[in-house]
Amino acid sequence: MDTIRPPEEAVIDQCSATIDCCIDFRLQDQIGSFFQMERGEDFQADRVTAAGGCLDLARGTEAEKAVRIKDLSVSVSKHRPEEVILVIHTHCAAYESLVRRCMVEQEIALDHMLECERQIQVADAHVAADYLRSIFPFVTVRLYRALVDPAKRRMVGLQRLSLMDNSPSMLASDFLRIEPFSALRMP
User: Fold this and answer.
1) What is the DSSP letter of 8?
2) Residue 75 and residue 11 in contact, taking contact as beta carbons nearer than 8 Å
3) What is the band of 157 on the pLDDT scale with cuts at 50, 70, 90?
4) Burial code of 75-108, b = ≥16 C-beta within 10 A, e = fewer?
């Protein structure tokens, strides 16, 4: 995939960011609300969604990646966001079969499923971020992990993922708690 250059023409409607996340309904309202609370009322974002969020960008075929890049390119070229925000989330159905397969192959007990999911998703998020940086070098890429409480059927928190560290780890100090979100204990 070639690098996409920023458009030369003036932008009529510039957005603050493009949020790339999973299609999961449990995320949609809270993600927009969270970033508006964190960044202010002027925060406006395009939303690009696909099952598994960055799954196709990290593990997809060239055709699957091309579809995602096409959608992101429309946002980047027409609304010129300063950043692309990739959001992964806990209890993701799109990742479930991949996580279970990895756990069986490595003989990991099912009670470690959330940790396995985290490790796979965070690694994929870093791969996807690197891929997007190679295509959109003029846009900042940020990573977040949404915490979904299945019992409440909604997102209850958001963690910022470290981009400086090549290992798939999260910074506990970067856990963002902004009302109406509450903390969810991590495994």
Assistant:
1) S
2) no
3) confident
4) bbebbbbeebbbbbbbbbebbeebbeeebeeeee
Percentage above 90 pLDDT, the chain = 50
CB-CB contact of 127 with 119 (8 Å): no
Which residues, including other chains, have CB under 8 Å from residue 34's CB and lie 6 or more apart? 155, 158, 176, 178, 181
Mean pLDDT of the chain: 82
**Do strands 154-161 and 170-176 pair parallel, antiparallel, or not at all (unpaired)?**
antiparallel
Cβ contact 90:146 at 8 Å: yes
The CA distance from 111 to 83, in Å, is 36
Strand order in the sheet with 45-49: 45-49, 17-21, 83-89, 140-149, 154-161, 170-176
Residue 122 backbone zone (phi > 0: left; psi -120 to 50: alpha; other: beta): alpha
